[in-house]
From TrEMBL:
Organism: Hibiscus syriacus
Pathway listed: Lipid metabolism; fatty acid biosynthesis
GO biological process terms, semicolon-separated: fatty acid biosynthetic process; response to high light intensity; translation
Keywords recorded for this protein, A-Z: Acyltransferase, Membrane, Ribonucleoprotein, Ribosomal protein, RNA-binding, rRNA-binding, Transferase, Transmembrane, Transmembrane helix
Stored Pfam families: ACP_syn_III_C (PF08541), FAE1_CUT1_RppA (PF08392), Ribosomal_L23 (PF00276), Ribosomal_L23eN (PF03939)
Protein name as it appears in the record: very-long-chain 3-oxoacyl-CoA synthase
Domain FAE: 24-192, 194-270
The Large ribosomal subunit protein uL23 N-terminal domain, residue ranges: 445-495
């Protein structure tokens, strides 16, 4: 009996020791930023107003109205006169970009940034354990991570990741990846390419239904030119993704009293509305929670003036909170996923950060993704003017909010020209740069009144109507003149996409118990499809979307009016593997 008691006591002590060790090990798992570096291009890559005009004038397919629209868009975008551009565009080679140009650009950005980072931290490249590179639209072979490892002769056992096509939220995705790796491997050094703070939490959401997936996508137009297609549903999709993200993030960072206050007010508002209008549709509630009770500074994605204004208004932020984001956009433009670190550099240059302050970073990207993370400042006296110049004190928030880049240099935007030939239009456009239009200035009101009085006295305003001699007993009324429609601004700014493509046909896969049984037993996938799609269109849509061959398609109209499609795969494909690939299992 005594022997068994000793064994139980030893086992209990070991269990308690193990649990205590795991608790402290879990508690002390933190991810710290020792230093970060932002790329600053050379002065010969600056896009001043003159260079922008030269780039636009090289496109001979644009008319005067298109030129005016481009300049107005730039003038209201929030960009300054000292942003940067790629060398091939400045040199006039944008129509035929090559992979050599892309490699040269990436080498300049990555290696200049990493050289400065290693010099500032004193850490040798051979001590790096994890390397993460994220570049959305350029993914060569060998990868950019291999190129970096070769350049700095990093060790063979390094863990490297090459992320691509993650859009403007790639930086937050990389930070979240490194944090998760640190939880499995302790005391490691990592480089997040482009990236003295402690990471409190990181949250990512991805809403991948059809409307969200296609609202921001990289495609080719009818002439084969690549570009980004942004649809009208983008603001609604971004708001939904951001809302879903905040539902997970806010309970982690806000104090308990703020969450209780918000819950009580939300329940009271819901009960009041239900009592007054029991059958009325429920309107979306406004964002009335106080974020500043848990966050001191905000790093928003500097994707454009409209994005900044929209997020700032929805979160209830003042102009002081939006100033760093506006000024990062004004000075460097939309730098995609790395823009958040330029916003943070502006805060450091302005000496805003103090020990214990919490910084919220918000990134939005295609897919559609919304990623956020919260950093805690670990020490006072953070100041850095390597990227944001020493003259940062002269950069006022008014410049970032309303940035009249071309308004002072090109006042001819207010003029109205009537020019027949596009060649003459381009020549006039080139000649009238900097000309101030005074033709619309109103005359003196007193002089106009005196002139009108003289005209009345002289009888100049009264004209005798000439008599018309008629020689016929019938009257002829000419037809009303009908001119061809020639709107000033076209109604459709982009070619319409196919109304019934694969994204529209396949709405979403069913994950019910009966659908899962079909997958396991009959090698059949079940989808909810568009009511207008027939079996052939469904078969083609499945092939285009998932690159699989189907043996047979059966359809069924459900009682609620939706259409269900049973897609049986050929023996070469396993429905379980396909379902796992598309993420429904």
């Amino acid at each position: 009996m005594e022997f068994s008691m000793k064994i139980c006591l030893i086992f209990l002590c070991n269990l308690v020791s193990y649990l205590v060790n795991m608790f402290f090990q879990k508690r002390n798992q933190h991810c710290y930023v020792l230093d970060y570096e932002c790329f600053k291009a050379s002065d010969d890559q600056k896009l001043d107003p003159g260079t922008c005009i030269k780039v636009m004038m090289r496109n001979k397919n644009l008319g005067l109205e298109q030129y005016r629209f481009l300049i107005k868009a730039i003038a209201s975008s929030g960009l300054g006169e000292e942003t940067y551009g790629p060398r091939n565009i400045i040199d006039g080679r944008e129509e035929f970009p090559s992979e050599v140009d892309a490699h040269l650009e990436m080498d300049e950005i990555m290696f200049t940034t990493l050289d400065g980072l290693f010099a500032n931290t004193g850490i040798s490249p051979s001590k790096i354990d994890i390397l993460v590179v994220n570049v959305s639209l350029f993914s060569p072979s060998p990868s950019l991570t291999s190129r970096t490892i070769k350049r700095y002769k990093m060790r063979d056992t390094i863990k490297y990741f090459n992320l691509s096509r993650t859009g403007c939220s790639a930086s937050m995705v990389s930070v979240d990846l490194v944090q998760r790796l640190f939880k499995t491997i302790a005391n490691q050094f990592a480089i997040v390419d482009r990236c003295l703070f402690k990471l409190r939490c990181a949250v990512g959401t991805n809403i991948g239904y059809n409307e969200a997936y296609g609202c921001a996508i990289h495609v080719e137009d009818q002439q084969g030119h690549q570009g980004a297609l942004l649809t009208k549903t983008l603001p609604k999709v971004a708001a939904k993704a951001f809302t879903e993200n905040l539902k997970i993030l806010l309970p982690k960072i806000l104090p308990v009293y703020e969450l209780l206050q918000y819950s009580i007010s939300a329940l009271g508002r819901k009960a009041t509305m239900k009592g007054r209008y029991p059958t009325a549709p429920r309107a979306p509630s406004s964002f009335d929670i106080n974020l500043k009770s848990g966050v001191d500074h905000f790093c928003l994605h500097p994707g454009g003036r409209g994005v900044i204004d929209g997020i700032g208004k929805s979160l209830g932020l003042c102009e002081y909170d939006l100033e760093p984001t506006r000024m990062a956009l004004y000075r460097f433009g939309n730098t995609a996923s790395s823009g958040l670190w330029y916003v943070l550099s502006y805060m450091k240059a302005k000496k805003r950060l103090k020990k214990g302050d919490k910084i919220l970073m918000v990134g939005l990207g295609a897919g559609f993704m919304s990623n956020t993370c919260v950093w805690e400042v670990m020490k006072d006296g953070l100041e850095d003017t390597r990227v944001i110049e020493a003259r940062v004190s002269a950069m006022s928030p008014a410049k970032g909010k309303a940035c009249p880049v071309f308004n002072d240099s090109f006042r001819f935007l207010t003029c109205r020209f009537v020019i027949c030939s596009s060649y003459i239009a381009v020549r006039w456009f080139n000649m009238l740069k900097g000309v101030v239009d005074n033709s619309k200035k109103k005359a003196d009101p007193k002089a106009q009144a005196v002139k009108a009085a003289k005209a009345v006295k002289s009888g100049a305003t009264f004209k005798k109507k000439a008599k018309k001699i008629r020689t016929k007993v019938t009257f002829h009324r000419p037809r009303t003149l009908k001119k061809d429609r020639n709107p000033k601004y076209p109604r459709i700014s982009a070619p319409p996409r196919n109304k019934l493509d694969q994204y529209q046909i396949l709405k979403y896969p069913l994950t019910t118990e009966s659908a899962m049984k079909k997958i396991e037993d009959n090698n059949t996938l079940v989808f909810i499809v568009d009511i207008r799609a027939d079996k052939k269109k469904i078969k083609d849509a499945v092939k285009k979307m998932y690159d699989i061959q189907t043996k047979k398609v059966n359809t069924l109209i459900r009682p609620d009016g939706t259409k269900k499609a049973y897609v049986r795969l050929t023996p070469d494909y396993d429905a379980l593997d396909v379902a796992n690939k598309i993420g429904i299992i």
